[in-house]
Amino acid sequence: MAGRALAPFLLAATILAALLATCHAGGIAVYWGQNDGEASLSETCASSNYKFVILAFVYKFGKGQTPQLDLASHCDPSSGGCRGLSKDIQSCQRRGIKVLLSIGGGDGSYGLTSEGDARNVAAYLWNNYLGGTSSSRPLGDAVLDGIDFDIELGAAKYWDRLARDLKNMGKKQQGGNGVLLSAAPQCPFPDEWDSGAIKTGLFDFVWVQFYNNPECQFSSGRSAFLAAWKQWESVPAGKIFLGLPASKDAAGTGFVPAGELNSRVLPLIRGSPKYGGVMLWSKYYDDRTGYSSAIKSHV
């Protein structure tokens, strides 16, 4: 009798524990598109390892330039060869995966010279990749979920204006879901390029690059790492992600073996109310190490 009476209680407690775990569960974001030999976009999403896939990069834009997309050998946008990715993008979205387009990167020709320039770039991104219309949409009819700011070059001007314009365009869309915004700052705080934009409070996700910056990555010690994480927690953004290389070859410094990440690093930050999960650079390297599979149940 006592055992039977306890059973519903134990069941309820188990369900509650599961719900609480789900509430705090993070996801994995991955950059895709910059390397030959990585899995296709449809295969990437079919793996069920990722909640976010970030297409990289629109490496040329602003300063009066016609924006250009580069997805390595996956496709040639100049000949319309990337429009076939539309079906893959829609397949990802049907699985509940958010697909964003990253602008910038560490090697490109981009920058904003004025508020008008920012407005023009926002209009181009809206009409060619988001909810607007254009005869030259490089990725076809698929409507991406948002734009990722991976700004690592040039002057730190007018990025806040670009963020505001993109958000405003999303708000005006009839029946739309708006435009998600993400940023990929370096871990030294505040970021040299993305800081002004992030301060707008418009960013849904900030995946901080805790690599190639020895002073704040985990290899410099728990206290230095946590100090940097807590600074990033203070920004007015939705969720903060721990950005890491998916293999030793993916970055100069900052690689954390999966076992160490699961046992020593994630327990330090998983309880944070702004914790969103882990961002990986990139799908190519993850394919070679199986990193996302090794950390998925701990993120």
UniProtKB/TrEMBL annotation:
CDD domains linked to this entry: GH18_hevamine_XipI_class_III
Domain GH18: 26-299
Gene3D superfamilies found in the cross-reference section: Glycosidases
Top-level taxon of origin: Eukaryota
Keyword Disulfide bond belongs to the record: yes
EC numbers: 3.2.1.14
Enzyme class: hydrolase
Assigned GO CC terms: extracellular region
Molecular function GO labels: endochitinase activity
Keyword Nucleotide-binding: no
Catalytic reaction(s) noted: Random endo-hydrolysis of N-acetyl-beta-D-glucosaminide (1->4)-beta-linkages in chitin and chitodextrins
SUPFAM superfamilies the record matches: (Trans)glycosidases
Record key words, sorted: Carbohydrate metabolism, Chitin degradation, Disulfide bond, Glycosidase, Hydrolase, Polysaccharide degradation, Signal
Signal sequence segment: 1-25
Gene Ontology biological process: chitin catabolic process; defense response to fungus; polysaccharide catabolic process
PANTHER family: CHITINASE, ENDOCHITINASE
Sequence similarity: Belongs to the glycosyl hydrolase 18 family.
Protein name: chitinase
Organism listed in the record: Setaria italica (Foxtail millet)
Name of encoding gene: LOC101773953
